[in-house]
């Protein structure tokens, strides 16, 4: 816990907007395969597309709770189009930063909000577990898992997963790994 700043601790110890909305307009649930966290978000949206109420339930670590808590505050009263634009970077910044190994937890809140908005707008996306490294059949969850467990550089991801060491020497997968590293570790 020593790595968390005061604001993170406050949102972790006194999370805002916890619970369920029974007659929610939309619900979004995401799990982070990397560390087993689950977040569920409930939105009450009025006829003008304004988020009147938002609550969450999270099964996860302190950082997952704190990011969920502050994310609900950031989208409450906002239009759904603004909520769509909330990035995990903005969430982490609003918290005043997170320890690097916890950055991936912030992705959960932004993803859950987007999923709830998909639900509201009737958008169905396929569960993504894209193959990242075609040569070796290494999928996205494997790479995410490595990042969540401390592989914060390309070299470390390669060491943990073997990506880029196949026949094409990373020509087809290096860029995809870089994108994932940026998503989770860009702060
Ligand atoms: S696709 Fe990863 S090494 Fe070729």
TrEMBL record:
Domain NIF system FeS cluster assembly NifU N-terminal: 4-124
PANTHER family for this protein: IRON-SULFUR CLUSTER ASSEMBLY ENZYME NIFU HOMOLOG (PTHR10093)
SUPFAM superfamilies given in the database record: SufE/NifU
Signal peptide: none
Record-given protein name: Fe-S cluster assembly scaffold protein NifU
GO molecular function: iron ion binding; iron-sulfur cluster binding
Pfam families listed in its UniProt record: Fer2_BFD (PF04324), NifU_N (PF01592)
GO biological process, one term: iron-sulfur cluster assembly
Gene: nifU
Domain BFD-like [2Fe-2S]-binding: 131-182
Domain of life assignment: Bacteria
Keywords: Iron, Iron-sulfur, Metal-binding
